Amino acid sequence: MLTSLYVRHFAVVEAAEISFGPGLTVVSGETGAGKSLLVDALLLLAGARADSGMVRAGSDRAELAAEFDLSDLPEARAWLKHEELDEDEVCQLRRVIRAEGSSRAWVNGRPVNAGQLGELASLLVEIHGQHEHQALLSRAHQLALLDAYAGDDSVAGQVRELASQWRELGSRIRRLSGGEDREQRLELLRHECDELEKWALPADELAELEASHRRLANAGKLAEGAAGIVELLDGDSEFALRRALGRTHAELGKLAELDDRLAPLLELLDNATIQLGEAADGLGRYGQDVDLDPERFTEIDEHLARLHELGRRHRLPMAELHDKLGELRSELDELEGAGDALEQLAAQRERTQAQYVTAATALSKARNIAATRLGAEVSTLMGELGMAGGVLQVALEAADGDEPDAQGRERCELLVSANPGQPPRPLRKVASGGELARISLAIEVATLGKDSVGSMVFDEVDSGIGGAVAEVVGQKLRSLGAQRQVLCVTHLPQVAAQGHAHLRVSKHSGDDSTHTRIETLDSAGRRDELARMLGGVEITRETRAHAKKMLEQAQVD
To answer: Where in the sequence is the signal peptide annotated (predicted)?
Structure first.
Protein backbone atom coordinates (compact mmCIF):
# COMPACT_ATOMS: atom_id res chain seq x y z
CA MET A 1 0.00 0.00 0.00
CA LEU A 2 1.21 3.50 -0.87
CA THR A 3 1.71 5.39 2.39
CA SER A 4 3.32 8.64 1.25
CA LEU A 5 4.33 10.59 -1.84
CA TYR A 6 6.81 13.47 -1.89
CA VAL A 7 7.43 15.78 -4.85
CA ARG A 8 9.74 18.78 -5.06
CA HIS A 9 10.27 21.18 -7.97
CA PHE A 10 7.99 18.97 -10.08
CA ALA A 11 6.16 20.85 -12.87
CA VAL A 12 4.24 23.62 -11.04
CA VAL A 13 4.59 21.99 -7.62
CA GLU A 14 7.30 23.59 -5.53
CA ALA A 15 7.09 21.01 -2.74
CA ALA A 16 4.38 18.69 -1.44
CA GLU A 17 4.23 15.67 0.82
CA ILE A 18 1.02 13.65 0.88
CA SER A 19 0.06 10.79 3.19
CA PHE A 20 -2.28 8.06 1.99
CA GLY A 21 -4.42 5.57 3.84
CA PRO A 22 -6.46 2.54 2.78
CA GLY A 23 -9.65 2.71 0.77
CA LEU A 24 -10.59 5.15 -2.01
CA THR A 25 -8.78 8.49 -2.09
CA VAL A 26 -10.21 10.98 -4.60
CA VAL A 27 -8.30 13.91 -6.08
CA SER A 28 -10.14 16.95 -7.40
CA GLY A 29 -9.42 20.52 -8.43
CA GLU A 30 -10.19 23.10 -11.04
CA THR A 31 -9.24 22.49 -14.66
CA GLY A 32 -5.53 23.18 -15.16
CA ALA A 33 -4.71 22.98 -11.45
CA GLY A 34 -2.53 19.92 -11.96
CA LYS A 35 -4.72 17.07 -10.65
CA SER A 36 -2.93 14.51 -12.81
CA LEU A 37 0.51 15.48 -11.50
CA LEU A 38 0.18 12.88 -8.75
CA VAL A 39 -0.43 10.22 -11.39
CA ASP A 40 2.49 11.53 -13.46
CA ALA A 41 4.75 11.36 -10.40
CA LEU A 42 3.78 7.74 -9.76
CA LEU A 43 4.31 6.88 -13.42
CA LEU A 44 7.83 8.28 -13.26
CA LEU A 45 8.49 6.36 -10.05
CA ALA A 46 7.24 3.30 -11.93
CA GLY A 47 10.00 3.70 -14.51
CA ALA A 48 8.29 5.85 -17.17
CA ARG A 49 10.61 7.81 -19.43
CA ALA A 50 11.76 11.03 -17.80
CA ASP A 51 11.14 14.39 -19.47
CA SER A 52 13.13 17.48 -18.57
CA GLY A 53 9.91 19.47 -19.09
CA MET A 54 8.67 18.05 -15.77
CA VAL A 55 11.33 20.03 -13.88
CA ARG A 56 9.94 23.23 -12.39
CA ALA A 57 11.10 26.33 -14.26
CA GLY A 58 14.19 27.82 -12.63
CA SER A 59 15.13 24.59 -10.82
CA ASP A 60 18.04 22.31 -11.64
CA ARG A 61 16.19 19.09 -10.80
CA ALA A 62 12.88 17.55 -9.74
CA GLU A 63 12.75 15.05 -6.87
CA LEU A 64 10.11 12.34 -6.45
CA ALA A 65 9.81 9.81 -3.63
CA ALA A 66 7.19 7.29 -2.53
CA GLU A 67 6.98 4.87 0.36
CA PHE A 68 5.03 1.60 0.34
CA ASP A 69 3.97 -0.73 3.14
CA LEU A 70 4.82 -4.29 1.99
CA SER A 71 3.11 -6.21 4.79
CA ASP A 72 0.44 -7.54 2.36
CA LEU A 73 2.67 -7.74 -0.73
CA PRO A 74 4.66 -11.02 -0.58
CA GLU A 75 5.63 -10.95 -4.26
CA ALA A 76 7.17 -7.49 -3.91
CA ARG A 77 9.06 -8.61 -0.79
CA ALA A 78 10.36 -11.67 -2.64
CA TRP A 79 11.50 -9.52 -5.60
CA LEU A 80 13.35 -7.11 -3.32
CA LYS A 81 15.05 -9.98 -1.51
CA HIS A 82 16.11 -11.58 -4.79
CA GLU A 83 17.60 -8.27 -5.97
CA GLU A 84 19.20 -7.69 -2.53
CA LEU A 85 17.23 -4.45 -2.13
CA ASP A 86 15.03 -5.51 0.78
CA GLU A 87 14.61 -3.35 3.88
CA ASP A 88 12.16 -4.81 6.46
CA GLU A 89 8.54 -4.44 5.26
CA VAL A 90 8.91 -0.93 3.87
CA CYS A 91 9.92 0.06 0.35
CA GLN A 92 11.09 3.52 -0.65
CA LEU A 93 11.29 4.57 -4.30
CA ARG A 94 13.15 7.75 -5.24
CA ARG A 95 13.87 9.39 -8.57
CA VAL A 96 15.68 12.58 -9.49
CA ILE A 97 15.17 14.20 -12.91
CA ARG A 98 17.66 16.85 -13.93
CA ALA A 99 16.87 19.88 -16.05
CA GLU A 100 19.14 18.64 -18.87
CA GLY A 101 17.05 15.45 -19.14
CA SER A 102 19.08 12.81 -17.29
CA SER A 103 17.62 10.93 -14.32
CA ARG A 104 18.65 8.56 -11.53
CA ALA A 105 16.61 6.16 -9.41
CA TRP A 106 16.98 4.45 -6.05
CA VAL A 107 15.16 1.68 -4.20
CA ASN A 108 15.64 1.70 -0.44
CA GLY A 109 18.59 4.03 -0.91
CA ARG A 110 20.38 1.80 -3.44
CA PRO A 111 20.77 2.85 -7.10
CA VAL A 112 18.72 0.93 -9.69
CA ASN A 113 18.04 1.23 -13.41
CA ALA A 114 14.70 2.09 -15.01
CA GLY A 115 14.05 -1.56 -15.84
CA GLN A 116 14.38 -2.63 -12.22
CA LEU A 117 12.21 0.29 -11.14
CA GLY A 118 9.51 -0.79 -13.59
CA GLU A 119 9.62 -4.44 -12.48
CA LEU A 120 9.23 -3.52 -8.84
CA ALA A 121 6.53 -0.89 -9.46
CA SER A 122 4.44 -3.43 -11.37
CA LEU A 123 4.19 -5.38 -8.10
CA LEU A 124 3.30 -2.30 -6.06
CA VAL A 125 0.90 -0.16 -8.07
CA GLU A 126 -1.36 -0.51 -11.11
CA ILE A 127 -1.89 2.76 -12.99
CA HIS A 128 -4.82 3.40 -15.32
CA GLY A 129 -3.99 6.79 -16.75
CA GLN A 130 -5.88 8.61 -19.44
CA HIS A 131 -4.05 6.50 -22.03
CA GLU A 132 -3.03 3.41 -20.06
CA HIS A 133 -6.35 1.67 -20.80
CA GLN A 134 -5.12 1.48 -24.41
CA ALA A 135 -3.33 -1.69 -23.25
CA LEU A 136 -6.75 -3.36 -23.47
CA LEU A 137 -6.39 -3.24 -27.24
CA SER A 138 -3.46 -5.67 -27.15
CA ARG A 139 -4.49 -9.28 -27.66
CA ALA A 140 -1.59 -10.49 -25.55
CA HIS A 141 -2.81 -8.22 -22.72
CA GLN A 142 -6.35 -9.55 -23.16
CA LEU A 143 -5.12 -13.14 -22.81
CA ALA A 144 -3.16 -12.21 -19.69
CA LEU A 145 -6.32 -10.63 -18.24
CA LEU A 146 -8.29 -13.80 -18.92
CA ASP A 147 -5.64 -15.95 -17.24
CA ALA A 148 -5.61 -13.63 -14.23
CA TYR A 149 -9.40 -13.91 -14.03
CA ALA A 150 -9.23 -17.71 -14.30
CA GLY A 151 -7.06 -17.52 -11.20
CA ASP A 152 -4.86 -20.59 -11.76
CA ASP A 153 -1.42 -19.14 -12.41
CA SER A 154 0.25 -22.49 -11.74
CA VAL A 155 -1.21 -24.11 -14.89
CA ALA A 156 -0.29 -21.13 -17.10
CA GLY A 157 3.19 -21.14 -15.58
CA GLN A 158 3.52 -24.88 -16.21
CA VAL A 159 2.54 -24.37 -19.87
CA ARG A 160 5.20 -21.67 -20.28
CA GLU A 161 7.87 -23.79 -18.59
CA LEU A 162 7.10 -26.94 -20.61
CA ALA A 163 7.10 -24.97 -23.89
CA SER A 164 10.49 -23.53 -22.96
CA GLN A 165 11.86 -26.99 -22.11
CA TRP A 166 10.54 -28.39 -25.40
CA ARG A 167 12.30 -25.65 -27.40
CA GLU A 168 15.56 -26.14 -25.49
CA LEU A 169 15.49 -29.89 -26.12
CA GLY A 170 14.90 -29.17 -29.83
CA SER A 171 17.94 -26.90 -29.90
CA ARG A 172 20.11 -29.60 -28.30
CA ILE A 173 18.86 -32.21 -30.76
CA ARG A 174 19.64 -29.95 -33.72
CA ARG A 175 23.09 -29.25 -32.35
CA LEU A 176 23.88 -32.95 -31.90
CA SER A 177 22.52 -34.00 -35.30
CA GLY A 178 23.97 -31.20 -37.38
CA GLY A 179 25.27 -33.28 -40.38
CA GLU A 180 28.40 -31.80 -41.95
CA ASP A 181 28.47 -29.03 -39.40
CA ARG A 182 28.62 -31.64 -36.69
CA GLU A 183 31.64 -33.35 -38.26
CA GLN A 184 33.43 -30.02 -38.65
CA ARG A 185 32.66 -29.19 -35.04
CA LEU A 186 33.97 -32.57 -33.90
CA GLU A 187 37.20 -32.07 -35.82
CA LEU A 188 37.66 -28.59 -34.38
CA LEU A 189 36.92 -29.75 -30.83
CA ARG A 190 39.40 -32.63 -31.04
CA HIS A 191 42.11 -30.28 -32.31
CA GLU A 192 41.42 -27.68 -29.62
CA CYS A 193 41.27 -30.27 -26.85
CA ASP A 194 44.59 -31.78 -27.98
CA GLU A 195 46.24 -28.36 -27.93
CA LEU A 196 44.83 -27.37 -24.55
CA GLU A 197 45.67 -30.74 -22.99
CA LYS A 198 49.28 -30.25 -24.12
CA TRP A 199 49.73 -26.67 -22.99
CA ALA A 200 47.00 -25.50 -20.58
CA LEU A 201 47.84 -25.71 -16.86
CA PRO A 202 45.91 -25.41 -13.60
CA ALA A 203 46.27 -22.01 -11.94
CA ASP A 204 48.88 -23.08 -9.36
CA GLU A 205 51.08 -24.82 -11.96
CA LEU A 206 50.81 -21.82 -14.29
CA ALA A 207 51.93 -19.50 -11.48
CA GLU A 208 54.96 -21.71 -10.81
CA LEU A 209 55.83 -21.82 -14.52
CA GLU A 210 55.72 -18.03 -14.75
CA ALA A 211 57.89 -17.72 -11.62
CA SER A 212 60.44 -20.14 -13.12
CA HIS A 213 60.45 -18.11 -16.33
CA ARG A 214 61.25 -14.94 -14.42
CA ARG A 215 64.08 -16.65 -12.52
CA LEU A 216 65.67 -18.17 -15.62
CA ALA A 217 65.29 -14.94 -17.62
CA ASN A 218 67.14 -13.02 -14.89
CA ALA A 219 69.55 -15.76 -13.70
CA GLY A 220 72.70 -13.81 -14.51
CA LYS A 221 71.41 -10.67 -12.86
CA LEU A 222 70.32 -12.64 -9.78
CA ALA A 223 73.72 -14.37 -9.40
CA GLU A 224 75.66 -11.15 -9.92
CA GLY A 225 73.40 -9.22 -7.57
CA ALA A 226 73.66 -11.86 -4.81
CA ALA A 227 77.49 -11.84 -5.06
CA GLY A 228 77.56 -8.05 -4.85
CA ILE A 229 75.41 -8.04 -1.72
CA VAL A 230 77.65 -10.69 -0.10
CA GLU A 231 80.63 -8.41 -0.77
CA LEU A 232 78.82 -5.53 0.92
CA LEU A 233 77.95 -7.66 3.91
CA ASP A 234 81.10 -9.72 4.43
CA GLY A 235 83.76 -8.61 1.94
CA ASP A 236 87.39 -7.66 2.46
CA SER A 237 86.61 -3.95 2.34
CA GLU A 238 86.85 -2.05 5.58
CA PHE A 239 83.36 -0.73 4.82
CA ALA A 240 81.78 -4.20 4.78
CA LEU A 241 78.88 -4.35 7.21
CA ARG A 242 80.17 -7.37 9.13
CA ARG A 243 83.55 -5.70 9.79
CA ALA A 244 81.84 -2.45 10.83
CA LEU A 245 79.52 -4.37 13.11
CA GLY A 246 82.51 -6.12 14.69
CA ARG A 247 84.17 -2.80 15.47
CA THR A 248 80.89 -1.48 16.85
CA HIS A 249 80.56 -4.54 19.07
CA ALA A 250 84.08 -4.08 20.43
CA GLU A 251 83.52 -0.41 21.29
CA LEU A 252 80.18 -1.13 22.94
CA GLY A 253 81.77 -3.96 24.92
CA LYS A 254 84.23 -1.53 26.47
CA LEU A 255 81.42 0.81 27.44
CA ALA A 256 79.36 -2.05 28.89
CA GLU A 257 82.23 -2.79 31.29
CA LEU A 258 81.70 0.71 32.68
CA ASP A 259 77.85 0.55 32.78
CA ASP A 260 76.07 -2.80 32.88
CA ARG A 261 72.87 -1.14 31.62
CA LEU A 262 74.42 -1.36 28.11
CA ALA A 263 74.60 -5.15 28.33
CA PRO A 264 71.19 -5.71 26.66
CA LEU A 265 72.25 -3.53 23.74
CA LEU A 266 75.42 -5.54 23.40
CA GLU A 267 73.28 -8.66 23.21
CA LEU A 268 71.31 -7.11 20.37
CA LEU A 269 74.54 -6.53 18.44
CA ASP A 270 75.50 -10.19 19.06
CA ASN A 271 72.21 -11.27 17.49
CA ALA A 272 72.68 -8.86 14.59
CA THR A 273 76.15 -10.27 13.96
CA ILE A 274 74.74 -13.80 13.83
CA GLN A 275 71.85 -12.83 11.50
CA LEU A 276 74.18 -10.84 9.25
CA GLY A 277 76.46 -13.83 8.93
CA GLU A 278 73.52 -16.13 8.12
CA ALA A 279 72.28 -13.69 5.48
CA ALA A 280 75.73 -13.50 3.87
CA ASP A 281 76.09 -17.30 3.87
CA GLY A 282 72.59 -17.75 2.44
CA LEU A 283 73.19 -15.26 -0.34
CA GLY A 284 76.49 -16.93 -1.13
CA ARG A 285 74.83 -20.31 -1.54
CA TYR A 286 71.98 -18.73 -3.56
CA GLY A 287 74.46 -17.17 -6.00
CA GLN A 288 76.17 -20.51 -6.53
CA ASP A 289 72.87 -22.36 -7.00
CA VAL A 290 71.18 -19.96 -9.46
CA ASP A 291 70.04 -22.04 -12.43
CA LEU A 292 71.69 -20.89 -15.65
CA ASP A 293 69.97 -23.50 -17.83
CA PRO A 294 69.29 -21.88 -21.25
CA GLU A 295 67.58 -25.02 -22.60
CA ARG A 296 65.08 -25.02 -19.76
CA PHE A 297 64.48 -21.30 -20.29
CA THR A 298 63.79 -21.88 -24.01
CA GLU A 299 61.36 -24.68 -23.15
CA ILE A 300 59.41 -22.56 -20.65
CA ASP A 301 59.45 -19.54 -22.96
CA GLU A 302 57.93 -21.61 -25.74
CA HIS A 303 55.29 -22.97 -23.35
CA LEU A 304 54.23 -19.47 -22.30
CA ALA A 305 54.24 -18.26 -25.91
CA ARG A 306 51.86 -21.10 -26.80
CA LEU A 307 49.62 -20.16 -23.87
CA HIS A 308 49.53 -16.52 -24.97
CA GLU A 309 48.59 -17.61 -28.47
CA LEU A 310 45.82 -19.89 -27.18
CA GLY A 311 44.56 -17.14 -24.90
CA ARG A 312 44.23 -14.77 -27.86
CA ARG A 313 42.49 -17.42 -29.95
CA HIS A 314 39.96 -18.30 -27.23
CA ARG A 315 39.77 -14.69 -25.98
CA LEU A 316 40.57 -15.78 -22.45
CA PRO A 317 43.30 -15.09 -19.90
CA MET A 318 45.89 -17.88 -19.75
CA ALA A 319 44.72 -18.82 -16.25
CA GLU A 320 41.23 -19.71 -17.63
CA LEU A 321 42.39 -21.96 -20.47
CA HIS A 322 42.44 -25.05 -18.26
CA ASP A 323 38.76 -24.50 -17.36
CA LYS A 324 38.00 -23.95 -21.07
CA LEU A 325 39.50 -27.38 -21.75
CA GLY A 326 36.92 -28.90 -19.40
CA GLU A 327 34.08 -27.18 -21.25
CA LEU A 328 35.31 -28.29 -24.67
CA ARG A 329 35.94 -31.82 -23.45
CA SER A 330 32.35 -32.04 -22.16
CA GLU A 331 30.99 -30.83 -25.50
CA LEU A 332 33.24 -33.26 -27.38
CA ASP A 333 32.11 -36.18 -25.22
CA GLU A 334 28.49 -35.18 -25.81
CA LEU A 335 28.95 -34.99 -29.59
CA GLU A 336 30.91 -38.23 -29.79
CA GLY A 337 28.16 -39.98 -27.84
CA ALA A 338 25.46 -38.31 -29.92
CA GLY A 339 23.76 -41.57 -30.87
CA ASP A 340 22.73 -42.48 -27.34
CA ALA A 341 22.23 -38.84 -26.40
CA LEU A 342 19.90 -38.22 -29.34
CA GLU A 343 17.75 -41.15 -28.38
CA GLN A 344 17.53 -39.91 -24.81
CA LEU A 345 16.79 -36.34 -25.89
CA ALA A 346 14.13 -37.46 -28.37
CA ALA A 347 12.44 -39.52 -25.68
CA GLN A 348 12.65 -36.66 -23.22
CA ARG A 349 11.21 -34.24 -25.77
CA GLU A 350 8.34 -36.61 -26.48
CA ARG A 351 7.58 -36.85 -22.76
CA THR A 352 7.75 -33.07 -22.44
CA GLN A 353 5.34 -32.64 -25.34
CA ALA A 354 2.89 -35.08 -23.75
CA GLN A 355 3.11 -33.17 -20.47
CA TYR A 356 2.56 -29.94 -22.38
CA VAL A 357 -0.56 -31.33 -24.07
CA THR A 358 -1.98 -32.28 -20.67
CA ALA A 359 -1.21 -28.87 -19.14
CA ALA A 360 -2.37 -26.91 -22.20
CA THR A 361 -5.63 -28.88 -22.30
CA ALA A 362 -6.27 -28.05 -18.65
CA LEU A 363 -5.46 -24.39 -19.34
CA SER A 364 -7.80 -24.33 -22.35
CA LYS A 365 -10.61 -25.73 -20.22
CA ALA A 366 -10.03 -23.13 -17.51
CA ARG A 367 -9.90 -20.36 -20.12
CA ASN A 368 -13.19 -21.41 -21.72
CA ILE A 369 -14.96 -21.44 -18.37
CA ALA A 370 -13.40 -18.12 -17.36
CA ALA A 371 -14.22 -16.53 -20.75
CA THR A 372 -17.94 -17.21 -20.33
CA ARG A 373 -18.00 -15.94 -16.76
CA LEU A 374 -15.87 -12.86 -17.45
CA GLY A 375 -17.95 -11.87 -20.49
CA ALA A 376 -21.20 -12.13 -18.55
CA GLU A 377 -19.88 -10.27 -15.51
CA VAL A 378 -18.30 -7.43 -17.49
CA SER A 379 -21.44 -7.09 -19.66
CA THR A 380 -23.53 -6.61 -16.52
CA LEU A 381 -21.10 -4.01 -15.19
CA MET A 382 -21.07 -2.20 -18.54
CA GLY A 383 -24.81 -1.71 -18.24
CA GLU A 384 -24.38 -0.29 -14.77
CA LEU A 385 -21.67 2.06 -16.07
CA GLY A 386 -23.87 3.73 -18.67
CA MET A 387 -23.48 1.32 -21.56
CA ALA A 388 -26.99 -0.14 -21.40
CA GLY A 389 -27.38 -3.17 -23.63
CA GLY A 390 -23.64 -3.35 -24.16
CA VAL A 391 -22.09 -6.79 -24.37
CA LEU A 392 -18.55 -8.01 -23.96
CA GLN A 393 -17.58 -11.43 -25.26
CA VAL A 394 -14.25 -13.17 -24.72
CA ALA A 395 -13.56 -15.09 -27.91
CA LEU A 396 -10.95 -17.84 -27.99
CA GLU A 397 -9.45 -19.11 -31.23
CA ALA A 398 -6.86 -21.82 -31.86
CA ALA A 399 -3.27 -20.67 -32.14
CA ASP A 400 -1.40 -21.31 -35.38
CA GLY A 401 0.77 -24.45 -35.53
CA ASP A 402 0.94 -27.60 -33.47
CA GLU A 403 4.16 -26.97 -31.61
CA PRO A 404 4.10 -26.20 -27.88
CA ASP A 405 3.53 -22.48 -27.38
CA ALA A 406 4.31 -20.54 -24.22
CA GLN A 407 0.90 -18.81 -24.42
CA GLY A 408 -1.01 -22.05 -24.76
CA ARG A 409 -3.17 -23.41 -27.53
CA GLU A 410 -5.41 -20.39 -28.06
CA ARG A 411 -5.42 -16.66 -28.53
CA CYS A 412 -7.90 -14.22 -27.04
CA GLU A 413 -9.94 -11.41 -28.58
CA LEU A 414 -12.30 -9.14 -26.64
CA LEU A 415 -15.43 -8.49 -28.70
CA VAL A 416 -17.77 -5.68 -27.79
CA SER A 417 -21.17 -4.42 -28.82
CA ALA A 418 -21.79 -0.99 -27.32
CA ASN A 419 -25.42 -0.84 -28.48
CA PRO A 420 -28.23 -3.42 -28.49
CA GLY A 421 -28.73 -5.26 -31.75
CA GLN A 422 -25.23 -4.69 -33.05
CA PRO A 423 -23.01 -7.75 -33.53
CA PRO A 424 -19.92 -7.83 -31.30
CA ARG A 425 -16.76 -6.66 -33.02
CA PRO A 426 -13.11 -6.53 -31.86
CA LEU A 427 -12.65 -4.00 -29.09
CA ARG A 428 -9.63 -2.47 -30.86
CA LYS A 429 -11.86 -1.52 -33.82
CA VAL A 430 -14.98 -0.10 -32.24
CA ALA A 431 -14.41 1.27 -28.73
CA SER A 432 -14.05 5.00 -28.13
CA GLY A 433 -11.76 6.44 -25.46
CA GLY A 434 -14.58 6.87 -22.96
CA GLU A 435 -15.89 3.36 -23.61
CA LEU A 436 -12.41 1.93 -23.15
CA ALA A 437 -12.08 3.70 -19.81
CA ARG A 438 -15.38 2.32 -18.54
CA ILE A 439 -14.71 -1.18 -19.89
CA SER A 440 -11.33 -1.04 -18.15
CA LEU A 441 -13.06 -0.15 -14.89
CA ALA A 442 -15.62 -2.92 -15.39
CA ILE A 443 -12.84 -5.45 -15.92
CA GLU A 444 -11.01 -4.21 -12.81
CA VAL A 445 -14.17 -4.66 -10.76
CA ALA A 446 -14.80 -8.09 -12.27
CA THR A 447 -11.24 -9.29 -11.68
CA LEU A 448 -10.92 -7.77 -8.20
CA GLY A 449 -8.73 -9.93 -6.00
CA LYS A 450 -7.19 -11.83 -8.89
CA ASP A 451 -3.81 -10.13 -8.59
CA SER A 452 -1.52 -9.18 -5.73
CA VAL A 453 -1.01 -5.48 -6.52
CA GLY A 454 -1.95 -3.43 -3.48
CA SER A 455 -2.60 0.01 -5.02
CA MET A 456 -4.66 1.02 -8.06
CA VAL A 457 -4.65 4.48 -9.67
CA PHE A 458 -7.35 5.80 -12.04
CA ASP A 459 -6.84 9.09 -13.87
CA GLU A 460 -10.22 10.55 -14.87
CA VAL A 461 -11.81 7.18 -15.58
CA ASP A 462 -15.15 9.05 -15.35
CA SER A 463 -14.39 11.19 -18.41
CA GLY A 464 -17.42 11.71 -20.65
CA ILE A 465 -20.12 10.56 -18.21
CA GLY A 466 -22.33 12.19 -15.64
CA GLY A 467 -25.50 11.89 -13.60
CA ALA A 468 -26.54 8.48 -12.31
CA VAL A 469 -23.78 6.72 -14.26
CA ALA A 470 -21.19 8.85 -12.52
CA GLU A 471 -22.62 7.82 -9.17
CA VAL A 472 -22.39 4.15 -10.15
CA VAL A 473 -18.77 4.66 -11.24
CA GLY A 474 -18.06 6.17 -7.85
CA GLN A 475 -19.74 3.25 -6.09
CA LYS A 476 -17.69 0.75 -8.09
CA LEU A 477 -14.48 2.59 -7.25
CA ARG A 478 -15.50 2.61 -3.59
CA SER A 479 -16.15 -1.14 -3.74
CA LEU A 480 -12.64 -1.56 -5.16
CA GLY A 481 -11.38 0.55 -2.26
CA ALA A 482 -12.91 -1.85 0.22
CA GLN A 483 -10.31 -4.46 -0.79
CA ARG A 484 -7.56 -2.44 -2.46
CA GLN A 485 -6.08 0.99 -2.00
CA VAL A 486 -7.50 3.14 -4.83
CA LEU A 487 -6.47 6.64 -5.95
CA CYS A 488 -8.80 8.34 -8.42
CA VAL A 489 -8.44 11.72 -10.14
CA THR A 490 -11.96 12.98 -10.88
CA HIS A 491 -13.90 16.06 -11.93
CA LEU A 492 -17.32 14.67 -10.94
CA PRO A 493 -18.88 15.31 -7.52
CA GLN A 494 -20.76 11.99 -7.69
CA VAL A 495 -17.42 10.18 -7.79
CA ALA A 496 -15.66 12.47 -5.33
CA ALA A 497 -18.39 11.95 -2.73
CA GLN A 498 -17.64 8.22 -2.64
CA GLY A 499 -14.05 8.66 -1.45
CA HIS A 500 -12.86 7.56 1.95
CA ALA A 501 -10.42 10.49 1.76
CA HIS A 502 -10.26 13.59 -0.43
CA LEU A 503 -7.30 15.59 -1.79
CA ARG A 504 -7.77 18.99 -3.39
CA VAL A 505 -5.28 20.42 -5.90
CA SER A 506 -5.31 24.19 -6.32
CA LYS A 507 -3.18 26.59 -8.35
CA HIS A 508 -2.05 30.00 -7.09
CA SER A 509 -0.37 32.64 -9.22
CA GLY A 510 1.84 35.42 -7.89
CA ASP A 511 3.59 38.29 -9.59
CA ASP A 512 6.24 36.12 -11.20
CA SER A 513 5.42 32.47 -10.48
CA THR A 514 2.68 29.87 -10.26
CA HIS A 515 2.37 27.32 -7.47
CA THR A 516 0.24 24.23 -7.07
CA ARG A 517 -0.89 23.23 -3.59
CA ILE A 518 -2.16 19.78 -2.57
CA GLU A 519 -4.14 19.51 0.67
CA THR A 520 -6.13 16.83 2.50
CA LEU A 521 -9.68 17.99 3.16
CA ASP A 522 -11.63 17.61 6.37
CA SER A 523 -15.41 17.15 6.43
CA ALA A 524 -16.16 20.85 5.95
CA GLY A 525 -13.52 21.13 3.24
CA ARG A 526 -15.01 18.17 1.40
CA ARG A 527 -18.47 19.70 1.56
CA ASP A 528 -17.20 22.99 0.13
CA GLU A 529 -15.21 21.24 -2.61
CA LEU A 530 -18.23 19.15 -3.66
CA ALA A 531 -20.30 22.34 -3.66
CA ARG A 532 -17.75 23.94 -5.98
CA MET A 533 -17.86 20.92 -8.27
CA LEU A 534 -21.66 21.06 -8.26
CA GLY A 535 -22.30 24.77 -8.45
CA GLY A 536 -19.50 26.36 -10.41
CA VAL A 537 -18.63 30.01 -9.72
CA GLU A 538 -21.44 30.90 -7.32
CA ILE A 539 -21.89 28.52 -4.40
CA THR A 540 -25.24 28.91 -2.66
CA ARG A 541 -26.55 27.56 0.60
CA GLU A 542 -28.64 25.07 -1.34
CA THR A 543 -25.54 23.86 -3.18
CA ARG A 544 -23.73 23.28 0.10
CA ALA A 545 -26.74 21.42 1.47
CA HIS A 546 -26.80 19.23 -1.64
CA ALA A 547 -23.09 18.53 -1.27
CA LYS A 548 -23.53 17.62 2.40
CA LYS A 549 -26.36 15.23 1.55
CA MET A 550 -24.26 13.57 -1.18
CA LEU A 551 -21.47 12.98 1.31
CA GLU A 552 -23.80 11.58 3.93
CA GLN A 553 -25.41 9.17 1.47
CA ALA A 554 -22.05 8.02 0.07
CA GLN A 555 -20.45 7.47 3.47
CA VAL A 556 -23.17 5.24 4.95
CA ASP A 557 -20.81 2.24 4.92
So the answer is: none
